[in-house]
Amino acid sequence: MFVKCLTLDRKQAIKWTLGLIMTVVVPFWTNKWNNLLKLEDEVKMTTEVVEKVATMAEKASAEIANKLPENSKLKQTILSVEKISEEMAEEAHLALDVFHKVDELKEEVSMFIAPALQPKSHEDNKGKMQNN
After folding, report:
1. Whole-angstrom Cα distance, residue 111 to residue 105?
2. What are the residue boundaries of the structural domains of the chain, listed by start?
């Protein structure tokens, strides 16, 4: 078999090399990719929860601040909480926008790559054999 590899032309040698590399790399890549997908889902869920909690905290602190005396330290603290909650909600919303853009990009890439990854049909191979 080693001797046969030596007699292969350049294209065949590249195919053999890529096949060997894919055989070794794909199992590791698949495992890591699945872990990344799980992590992505967890981060999305956490971001959604942060956005909801921050929005609720912002509304609650605004209502409480309206009921407190103007120059009290408690009102100033509650207003600080409101501002921080608002910023957190905005940041979480921006993060979710990024996730949605990434999802759209993944769909576009998979639509582009999917035809190349699909195996050729048996009839296509027959036609090629008959043409040769």
Report:
1. 10
2. 40-111
Torsion of the alpha carbons at 120, 125, 131 and 132, rounded to the nearest 10: 110
* CB of 47 closer than 8 Å to CB of 89: no
Residue 7 per-residue DSSP state: T
Render pLDDT for 54-97 as a digit per residue (tens, 0 to 9): 999 999 999 999 999 988 999 999 999 999 999 999 999 999 89
Here the contacts of 27-33 (C-beta below 8 Å, separation 24 or greater) are none
* Helix, strand, or coil (residue 50): helix
Q: Which has the closest alpha carbon to 48: 97, 87, 102, 103?
A: 97
CB neighbours of residue 54 within 10 Å: 20
